[in-house]
Structures are given as C-alpha cells and as structure tokens.
Amino acid sequence: MTVTRAEYCVIACAEAWRGAGEILASPMGLIPSIGARLARHTFAPDLLLTDGEAMLVGPDGTVEGWLPYRQHLALVTGGRRHVMMGASQIDRYGNQNISCIGDWSKPRRQLLGVRGAPVNTLNNPTSYWVPRHSRRVFVEKVDMVCGVGYDRAAGARHHRVPRVVTDLGVLDFATPDHAMRLASLHPGVTVEQVREATGFELAVPDEVPYTREPTPQELELIREVLDPVGARLREVGA
C-alpha cells in the first residue's frame, strides 16, 4: 500500500508524543492534530487532548473532562504540556519567529504576533511543524525571536525543543551545542534536497534513517477515522 508524504508527516508528528505519559498535547495545525490523536489512539494512551478551549477530549472528540484556565496555565508553566507550533522563521538553535518579517520597528510583513511563544518555549517542551521546508523559513538569523532557542534559554528549567517536522523530514537538536541536526528523511527525499532548502549549515550524521513506516493499523486510523476526507493531502501534496 502506497504511503503518502502527508502520512509520513503525520507519523513524524505523532512520534513527538511517544513516551510522554499523562501530559497535555497542544498541536497547532491539521497534520500535528492528526498526529496527536493518532498517538493517543495507539502508543500514547495517557495523552491529554483538548478542544482548544476548556474541555479535555478523546481522540474522537468525545468530552472526557473539564480543563479550567487556571489548571491549563499550571500545566503550561510546569512543563507538563508539549506544544507543536508553526514557524514563519526558525534558526539553527531553534529560535522561532511568527511576528514579523524585516526590522521589527518597520517590518515588511506583519504576521501573527509573538502571542504565547515565549511562555510556551521557556516553560514546556515545544516542537515545530513546517509544511514547506525552504530557505525562507530555515534562516541564519530570525528577524524577531518569539519562540526561544537553545542559545537563549539558559536557566529555563523546562525548555526543550524535541523536534521540527517538515514536508522533507525530521530535525532535532541532538548535537553537543544544540545546533539543528537532520534526524530522518521522509522516503523519496535526499540529504541534498534538505541542505538546499535550509539557509544554514545543518549537522548531518553519516547515516540518516528514513522516517518510519506507518503500521497497517495506523494507516487505517488516519484514512478511515482521523481524516477520512483527506484534508492532510491539501497541506502536504504527493
């Protein structure tokens, strides 16, 4: 059975929550949301999911409990949440920008704004989802630091950037100086493609594995239960 690039991305996002235990998953975006729900369905049954407002929900959307805002903040600031955000720019140490492009005093483009990125990154693990891996996103220096990277996080007890998932592969920071490393390639992608689409020098191991294959059960869940209309294919093409 042919596995699409979008489905490899779902698997790579789901793996961000493997072994996480009873923590709050906060996926932002379609494919991270499918990935979190897939993880809850399969290898991470203790994962907590929310409706984005005040309810704890199961992977099918069934309400399982109430999550008051005070308790949500306690999870956020105590390291008991793993959020997967987007990034308009990200650099080699995981500094992320979603606020503006250009000089912040007179930007060329105004984006979402800083929002909760500093609190997220300093107080709980934060991964990133980038549906189009390019030099516009992977830059030598972000125009404004919203999410805090490893070179700026000294003393932040719960700071961690477990992974960056893109349409080309998975990146992490498992290097001595926490510089970004190529951790896996989605099948059909080459190391040179990733290097060409990255605006700084990546750490690349001698052997780069492929992103793991989904199991038949996982494929069935993705295609029949979690995303039967195939919305994932509109976010990441063939």
UniProtKB/TrEMBL annotation:
The keyword Transferase belongs to this UniProt entry's keyword annotation: yes
InterPro entries the UniProt entry points to: CoA_trans_fam_I, NagB/RpiA_transferase-like
GO molecular function: CoA-transferase activity
Pfam family, one: CoA_trans
UniProt keyword list: Transferase
Family stated for the protein in its record: Belongs to the 3-oxoacid CoA-transferase subunit B family.
Protein name listed in UniProt: CoA-transferase
Taxonomic path: Bacteria, Bacillati, Actinomycetota, Actinomycetes, Kitasatosporales
